[in-house]
Each structure stands twice: as C-alpha cells, then as structure tokens.
C-alpha cells in the first residue's frame, strides 16, 4: 500500500524504507563526531534477509556522566586560549558509562516510525584524558580504552539519569505513558520505546510546508529532530542542509 | 487473559525454566498464549521451575514491577483502539475507576468484569460494508476535538502473532522439538485490513494469516501460530470470524497455520 505520506503525518512502509535509506546515506556523508553511523538492518524472515522490511540502527552511543571521580595529576591546566593540557590519570568509572543502542522501526499500527532503545552499564577504564581550553568553553575529551561490553541492561530509573530535563519532567508526570516497554518487533526482547501515539499530529505540523516529493524523503530526519531530542541524541544540523 | 504473577519481595522477576530446556519467558505475554505456544503436548498442570538466582541481567533487564506490565497492557489496548477506530480517544478518556477495574479484571482473569468495561469502549462490531465511521464514537467527557462528520475508512483488525517454527515432515505436533530459545519465536504485530472483495462475503482468520504471513502459506506450511491479541479477540470485535469454536475464550485459542488444522477449525 503506497499511500502518500502527505497531509496526515503518517507514512507507508515503502516511504519509510526510502526515507531510512536516504537518512543512512546522508548521515554517512556528513562528519558526525560524537555519534556512530546509522545502519540499515533488513529483518529476517525464515532466516533469509528481507528485501522489503527492515529498520535503522544506531548502536554504541556512549553517555559518560559528568562528575565521575577524577584524580587530577600534578599538571594544572593553564587557562589560555587554545592551550592543550595533558593530564594523565587512571580512573575507573564503572558506574558512569552507559552504552545505548537506538533503533528506528516502522509501526504498521500507527503508520509512523517508532524509536526503540536500550542501555547497558558498561565497564570502562579511562587511561588518559586531555583538557582543551578555548576562550569560550572548556571541555574534556576522554580517550577511552578497555571498554568491556558485558554489562547489565539499564532499568528506566537508570536511563532517566541520561535524559534531558523536559523528558524527565514528562516521565515524572506519568512514568509509563511517555516511555514504555514493548517487544522489539524484530528482536524478540522487550526494549524501551517512545510511545508513538502523538507522532502523526506533530509530523503533520513539521512537514506541512514541504512538497509531496520532499515530504516523504525528509520524513525521518524531521522526525528524528524531535524524537532524538527526547532521548538526548544530538542530531547535527548538517543533516538538514540540502546537499 | 491471565498474566502469571509471582510476588517475591527479594527478587521481582518473571523468568522461568521449563526443564530440561531453558526458556526465557517474556512477562508481558498472557499465560495462555505462552502455554499454547510452548507446550505442543499439553500438560496439565504445566510444570514450571522458577529461578531466584542467576538472573540473566545482560539479556533481560530487571522486571520493573506490576506497573510496567499494567502500562504495557494499557498501551496495547490504546494501540488496538487506534487500529480499529483511528484514534485512542476512547481508551484515553476512560475514567480512573474504569481503568482500575479493567486492570483488576485482567489480573484476576475475570472475563465478566472485563466485558462490562470493554463493551463501553465500542471496539466493534464493524458495519456490513467493512467501513469504520469515525463519528460513531459517542460523546465522551473531556474530549475537546470536534468529530469530523462522515469520514470513513476501511476497518482494520489488530492482530498479534507469535510464530514458532517446527521441523518439516512432522506428523504430530506433539513430536515437535520443544522451544529452547525465545529468539526462535517470531513476533508479528500488524493490523489486518478488511476489504470488501468480490466473491468473499466473510473474512476468515485463515485469509488474514495468509496475508500477514505469506511466506508460511506457500507449498509447505511448517509454522504453528498462537492466537490474536485479546483486544481483537473479544466476541464483539470480529463477528465475521468463522473459524473458532463458539464459547471458547478466543485469546487462548491457537490459530494454526497448517492447512489440515485450518480445515478442521473451519468445519467447527
């Protein structure tokens, strides 16, 4: 059923597939520092990868929580413009690194994309880190090694710590209506998901200025600008520039 | 629909092993569906071994209490309502008392109480021409949006299938190798759209399955599927469904995909 996505904020499976592949291609073309690449994953039917159905996956996104115990070495950073200071300190921040996987899956029920995600408590050992100061900001770049992936799956309460403030507020108002647990359509396990029931309404608003052709290809990037925000994914603006 | 519930203050988990094979049973699935799916040779009582140690926290995140299961159920209901009527207003506008009563009826497996509340949701039956008129919801308190008069669309039936593959050339289902891994069960959550077709007066479950699972209805069907989602299975939502035995609670009825069993079911 290839109905036009147009006016009601929904999209068909074919449009989802096309938009997803366009997203993957465009993302790969821009230089996204802090995030890995989205990948198209065909779903398997009877053990054979399907040509018509699949989902988009972004896996291995780190959330390193600020405020982990850092032992400063004797080199004090000098607050001059563009000075790179090098501190070496050994730190184990086992409790402060979360590793996330995000999947965008098509919902036949709501005819919109749905974001599925899960987080792992990762064991991590930071061996070196660099302080970089500029005139406007200072930030820490951690050089990460020895990341072990045998961690435990995070509960919603643990994931809450990584969510942006407006999402936390929504969660506090009602714990299970904004983010819920659903069986992942392709992976036989319960994942967390952003409840999709308002999606077509706000997508209608986001897309109403676009022409038909642009509307279906731009659907996913537009959708991601909202859904990504809800889970703290920073989507680069370059995704929205015409190439 | 019944959910298996073990209240254990030390270790709130719903993880079971059915010896000699370990099966990670997903907690949101009604016990009847699990039983039909996993017990080819129906045993009563169904012997389960409950583990309180060695929780597989790397593949299953800890159970977050009855609330998460209740909301999973509510969200499924919302989804079913959305599929049938085009929006979830009737579920979202349920009074607090009704919501509580519905969940209690699900917890206790009390079909009568469940029916008292679910009929208020008006999730069917469909008209003769298989079209849903969205202005027929009736007045609901707190609904601010005006109903759009006269808008119609083809009706859709919510369907959830849990499909377990068995080896070929099987004469008796009881001889199937038991499920050893939940990953070998496929989950399909997809509504079926009822269209009026020439020469087809009623829509059967077989026709729905053929549409949703075309790969299983080739020359050699080898799959056995467990029944549709409870919201779709209530008697008032699919009156044209001709292949279940009258009087049997539908959500516990396995819908078999093999043509021989389908023929038997249709004759019933």
TrEMBL record, chain A:
Gene Ontology BP, a term: autophagosome assembly
One Pfam match: Autophagy_act_C
InterPro entries attached to this UniProt entry: Atg3/Atg10 (IPR007135)
Keywords, ordered alphabetically: Autophagy, Transferase, Ubl conjugation pathway
Molecular function as annotated in GO: Atg12 conjugating enzyme activity
Domain of life: Eukaryota
A Gene Ontology cellular-component term: cytosol
Signal peptide (UniProt feature, chain positions): none
Family in the record: Belongs to the ATG10 family.
Name of protein: Ubiquitin-like-conjugating enzyme ATG10
UniProtKB/TrEMBL annotation, chain B:
GO CC terms, sorted: Atg12-Atg5-Atg16 complex; autophagosome; mitochondria-associated endoplasmic reticulum membrane contact site; phagophore; phagophore assembly site membrane
InterPro entries with a match to the protein in the record: Atg5 (IPR007239), ATG5_HBR (IPR048940), Atg5_HR (IPR042526), ATG5_UblA (IPR048939), Atg5_UblA_dom_sf (IPR042527), ATG5_UblB (IPR048318)
Domain of life: Eukaryota
Transmembrane region(s): none
Principal cellular location given in the protein's record: cytoplasm
Location of the Autophagy protein ATG5 UblA domain: 28-52
Gene Ontology BP terms: autophagy of mitochondrion; cellular response to nitrogen starvation; piecemeal microautophagy of the nucleus
Localization per Swiss-Prot or TrEMBL: Cytoplasm
Composition-biased stretches (Low complexity): 221-237
Domain Autophagy protein ATG5 alpha-helical bundle region: start-end pairs: 66-122
Record bears the keyword Ubl conjugation: yes
Region (Disordered): 219-268
Span of domain Autophagy protein ATG5 UblB: 156-221
Keyword flag Cytoplasm: yes
Keywords carried by this UniProt record: Autophagy, Cytoplasm, Isopeptide bond, Transport, Ubl conjugation
Function description: Required for autophagy.
Subunit structure: Conjugated with ATG12.
Homology family: Belongs to the ATG5 family.
Designated name of the protein: Autophagy protein 5
Native source organism of the sequence: Aegilops tauschii subsp. strangulata (Goatgrass)
């Amino acid at each position: 059923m290839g109905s036009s996505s147009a006016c009601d904020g929904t999209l068909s499976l074919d449009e989802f597939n096309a938009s997803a592949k366009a997203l993957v291609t465009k993302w790969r073309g821009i230089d996204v520092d802090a995030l890995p690449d989205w990948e198209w994953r065909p779903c398997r039917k009877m053990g054979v990868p399907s040509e018509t159905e699949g989902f988009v996956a972004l896996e291995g996104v780190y959330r390193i929580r600020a405020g982990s115990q850092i032992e400063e070495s004797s080199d004090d950073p000098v607050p001059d413009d563009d000075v790179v200071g090098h501190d070496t300190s050994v730190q184990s921040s086992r409790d402060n690194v979360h590793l996330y996987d995000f999947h965008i899956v098509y919902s036949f029920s709501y005819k919109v994309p749905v974001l599925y995600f899960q987080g792992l408590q990762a064991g991590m050992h930071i061996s070196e880190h660099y302080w970089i100061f500029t005139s406007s900001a200072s930030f820490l770049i951690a050089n990460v090694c020895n990341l072990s992936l045998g961690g435990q799956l995070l509960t919603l309460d643990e994931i809450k710590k990584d969510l942006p403030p407006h999402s936390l507020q929504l969660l506090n108002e009602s714990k299970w209506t904004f983010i819920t647990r659903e069986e992942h359509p392709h992976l036989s396990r319960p994942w967390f998901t952003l409840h999709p029931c308002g999606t077509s309404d706000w997508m209608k608003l986001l897309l109403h200025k676009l022409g038909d052709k642009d509307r279906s290809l731009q659907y996913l990037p537009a959708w991601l600008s909202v859904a990504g925000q809800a889970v703290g994914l920073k989507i680069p603006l370059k995704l929205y520039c015409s190439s | 629909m019944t959910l298996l519930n073990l209240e254990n203050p030390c270790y709130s988990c719903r993880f079971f092993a059915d010896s000699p094979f370990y099966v990670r049973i997903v907690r949101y699935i009604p016990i009847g569906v699990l039983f039909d799916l996993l017990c080819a040779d129906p045993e009563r009582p169904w012997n389960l071994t409950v583990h309180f140690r060695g929780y597989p926290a790397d593949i299953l995140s800890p159970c977050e209490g009855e609330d998460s299961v209740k909301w999973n159920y509510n969200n499924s209901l919302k989804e079913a309502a959305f599929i049938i009527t085009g929006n979830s207003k009737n579920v979202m506008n349920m009074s607090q008392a009704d919501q509580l009563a519905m969940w209690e009826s699900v917890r206790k497996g009390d079909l009568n109480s469940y029916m008292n509340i679910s009929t208020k949701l008006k999730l069917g039956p469909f008209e003769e021409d298989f079209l849903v008129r969205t202005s027929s919801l009736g007045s609901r308190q707190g609904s601010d949006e005006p109903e759009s008069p006269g808008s119609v669309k083809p009706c859709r039936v919510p369907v959830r299938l849990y499909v377990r593959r068995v080896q070929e050339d099987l004469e008796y289902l009881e001889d199937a190798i038991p499920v050893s891994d939940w990953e070998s069960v496929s989950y399909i959550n997809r509504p079926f759209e009822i269209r009026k077709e020439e020469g087809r007066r009623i829509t059967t479950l077989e026709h729905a399955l053929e549409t949703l699972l075309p790969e299983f209805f080739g020359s050699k069907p080898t799959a056995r599927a467990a029944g549709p989602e409870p919201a779709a299975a209530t008697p008032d939502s699919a009156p044209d469904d001709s292949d279940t035995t009258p009087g049997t609670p539908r959500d516990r009825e396995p819908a078999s995909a093999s043509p021989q069993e389908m023929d038997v079911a249709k004759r019933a």
